[in-house]
Structure formats: structure tokens, C-alpha cells
Amino acid sequence: MKRIGLLTSGGDCSGLNAAIRAVVSSAIERGWEVIGIHDATNGLILRPLSYHQMSMKDFEFPFATLGGTMLGTTNQADAHKFLKEDGSTEVLNDEQILERFKAGVDELKLEALVVIGGDGSMNIVSRYCQKAGVKMVGIPKTMDNDAPGTDLAIGFQTAREVVMDALDKLDTTAASHKRVMVAEVMGRGAGHLALQSAIAGFADIALIPEIPYTYEGIVKKLKAVKAEGRNHALMVVAEGVKTPEGEHYRAINGHTFGGISSYFVKRLTEDGFNVRGNILGHIQRSGTPCASDRILASSFGVHAVKLLAEGKTDRVVVHQNGHVTDLSLSEILSIGNTPVDPNEELVHVAKNLGIYIGEF
Ligand code: F6P
What we know:
single chain; alpha/beta; Rossmann fold; seven-stranded mixed sheet; 13 strands; 18% strand; binds 6-O-phosphono-beta-D-fructofuranose
């Protein structure tokens, strides 16, 4: 192995730069060249190609505290529509995308690609790689923590800290004003973030997409809190939760969810509760990566390069039972994403803490 490509793909999250640094550092240690591809696979698909040869100089700026990705990324809703650097869009069909990708890989003489991405990216990029005849190694990232085969993905632990911190802050204003504070958190299909931050932030209610709830159940819990003598409460709702009538709230882009908290604020207000809503939004995906995410990302990056050095490709680095290991790409793709299992330990913990988490 002499020359590898490295890219980040899908929604950003905190800890990506630590993973990039680890890949670059361990590859350079081995005397390899690392080509940083810009804006996910766009750097290989759009023309001119967009990339730069990476060195440890890339990390001279005090970047450790920065969220985001220094390589740029995309999570375009339409896989055929590309936003170019000059702001214009280019529409390409599948064949054109694959051709351009292969030509990009060939021109840059990449022997393998390290892909830092969520399950959607692994799916798409692995298809491109197969077509281009280039081997890949994947590193899972997603603040939703629903990446297949791994207990932890880069970005989740920082997001959980951000939400816990927000809940701590909301709690004081809730107490001052004797209010119910609703915090809407990210999680389209997976409620790991909502569930775990509700436990960490001592919330009273946690609604997640995986577990059905009733409006009556929410009201009953809020009344019980009041009856216990506490005149304020915290409610965490994952953005992917439907209304009791089964409707999703769509964000302004129509592609993601967002706004479900406003439903509860309105309805609970009409029913006499003193309520305010807060959509935590993209703040959850950014900010200083916590130590655990930096360590996880660093370990993932080092392991990815070790795999390549051993000639092991088409594998995805994972964290299982406290250890960094790897699974085959095909296994990862067959698992699909991993939402909260209603029987999992933390659901049991939440219930025993008296958190209303739904009816099941
Ligand atoms: O998949 C990660 C995620 O953060 C979701 O939880 C959220 O709905 C979505 O990305 C938002 O994506 P965008 O960057 O397109 O707003």
C-alpha cells in the first residue's frame, strides 16, 4: 500500500477531525501518501477533482476543539444532484457518477479508500468502490448511534453531552417558571440520543421513534410529577416521533424531520400546562468533541490503517464490548441500521427511573 484516499461522507458530527488525524498519522508513519478527498465522494465525481495531499501540517492549527470535518462532506437528499463549489448544481445519472468516480480514483492512483461515514454512506460509497475496483475500509460515524455492527459510532457521545448540558440548562429555567420544557433532539429513526440523554439529564418523559406512546400517557406522567410536589418537568422528544395521530413533522427541507415539539407545546398548552419548546437542532452535531469521541475516533483511524497494512480490505471498523475490531463490509451492509431495541437494558433503566417512555 502506497497511496490511499480518505473522505468523510454524510452528516457531520464531532470527532471526525480526530479520525482524519489518526488515519493520516498512522499512514504517514508507514511511509504512505494520503489524499484527502473533499466533500465526500463529490471530490472524485465533480470536475475539477477536489482533493489535497495530506500531511501532519494539516493539523497544526488548534483543530482538536473543532467539530465538523476539515475535508468537508455532503448528505445530499438527491443522490444525483450535485452542488458545485461555484454554487451551481450538476445533475448526473448513475452511469455518469460511477464513470467519473472511477476516473477520479484512477487519476489519483488510489489503491484504497478510507470512508468515514454512516450506514447510508457505506452503502453508496461501497457500490462506487466496487465499480471502480478500489478497495475500501469503513469507519462508522453518526450522532444517531444507529450504525450497524458497532456499539458506538463517532459523534454520538459528544451529541449526548450536548443534549445533557441543554437539559441541565432547561431544567433551571423550567424550575424558575414552573414550566414543562420540551427538548426536541435529532434521531429520524433511532432514539438512542433521546433515550440516553433523557436518562443522563434526569428527564421525566422520553419519546423515541421505536416505542409507541399515548398523549394520555404523557399527561398522566406530568400530573404525577405535579402530584409529587414538583411544579416543573423535562420532556425529551426525538424528531422522528410521530404525532399520536401518526403524522411526521417535516423540517423545512422536506427531507428530514423536525418540529414535533411544537405539536406537544400547542396541545399541552391547550390542556392547561405551562409549556415551552426547544429544538436543539444542529448544535447537537457540532462543538468540541468530548474525550470519549476523540479516543474512539483515534482508535478507529489507527485500526483502519492497520487493516490496510495487513492487506485486509472491504472491512468496517467497529467497537464491540469495549474493544475496537472489524467486520466485513458485506456483513455491515446486511445488518442495516440499529435502532433502540425496546427490550434493551437502558429502556429498562429509564422505566425504573420513572421516565415515561411509552406504552409497550
Ligand atoms: O443522520 C444524522 C442526522 O443528524 C439526523 O438525525 C438529522 O435528521 C439529519 O441528520 C439532519 O440532516 P441535515 O444535515 O440534512 O439537516
